[in-house]
Write a structure and sequence with these properties.
The protein is an alpha+beta fold. The chain has a four-stranded antiparallel β-sheet. Strands 5-6-8-7 form a four-stranded antiparallel β-sheet. It is built from ten helices and eight strands. It is globular, with a radius of gyration of 19 Å.
Length: 258
């Protein structure tokens, strides 16, 4: 199978929220039923279908997730040959070596990983020289990627440096990710330089997931992004039908928006 930017992105999504069964009978990539549905329907599903084999995004009731899968043995074997490990990913997942051979491959792998296992959000600032606006509203943007695999983030840290970005060093979060009854330690890497976050979304275009893009656009337009709002609310804010200041006014009265 020829190495391409499309395959690089798909391998990034599998490394994020995907897996191959240890028996090699199934390959899955999944996400949030509500927040990631548009991403799977309009981008990842069509990309996977065009590049590998036709798939149709669906709900997986057992896991309460939304995503895609294939049971085609030939495709699964090819993906394994491209560097994706089968079975549990905790200690084995890492960026395939061939991804580092091209800037384009690195960009698209990072894009796929961020769209499935990353997040864009904002926090308030309480520094000595911060003004009242920064203290009241969530103005400081953060791009963050979490994983239970430290090696994956070591590789991602290297990719980000090669793309002239300056992420914070990898940090551990105790009991950060829960899988069933097991509570597992996780690792995270984040980028919080405003100019580099703009480069992330506008120059490198490191996202095709509407949930990330809409959050970024709200921050860019208003200078802050309210936490805990859903995909419908984000669309309404960008259409001018909801004023984002509304959420802070509610909190001041003691009520939290749904």
């Amino acid at each position: 199978m020829k190495q391409t930017k499309e395959l690089s992105e798909i391998l990034g999504t599998i490394s994020g929220d995907g897996w191959i069964e240890s028996t090699e009978k199934g390959l899955y990539i999944v996400g949030n039923i509500k927040d990631d549905k548009e991403y799977f329907d309009k981008h990842l599903g069509p990309l996977f279908s065009k590049t590998l084999i036709e798939v149709k995004p669906k709900i997986y009731p057992y896991w309460s997730v939304y995503g895609i899968h294939t049971y085609k043995q030939e495709i699964i074997r090819d993906v394994i040959k491209l560097g994706i490990k089968k079975g549990k990913k905790v200690d084995s997942v890492k960026v395939p070596k061939w991804i580092f051979s091209s800037r384009e491959f690195m960009v698209f792998f990072l894009k796929g990983l961020f769209d499935t296992d990353g997040n864009f959000g904002c926090k308030k600032c309480y520094g000595r020289y911060d003004n009242e606006f920064n203290k009241k509203y969530h103005t400081q943007p953060i791009v963050r990627i979490d994983s239970i695999s430290k090696q994956l983030l070591v590789d991602v840290f290297e990719i980000m440096k090669r793309l002239d970005l300056h992420p914070e060093k990898i940090k551990m979060r105790k009991g950060g990710l829960k899988c069933g009854k097991w509570c597992m330690d996780s690792y995270f890497i984040k980028l919080n330089k405003r100019d580099e976050i703009k480069t992330w979304f506008e120059t490198l275009k490191l996202s095709s997931n509407p949930k990330h893009i809409d959050k970024y656009l709200i921050w860019k337009k208003f200078g802050f992004y309210p936490p805990k709002i859903n995909s419908i609310e984000r669309k309404e804010i960008l259409k001018g039908k909801i004023n984002p200041y509304f959420y802070y006014d509610l909190r001041e009265t003691g009520f939290e928006p749904a």
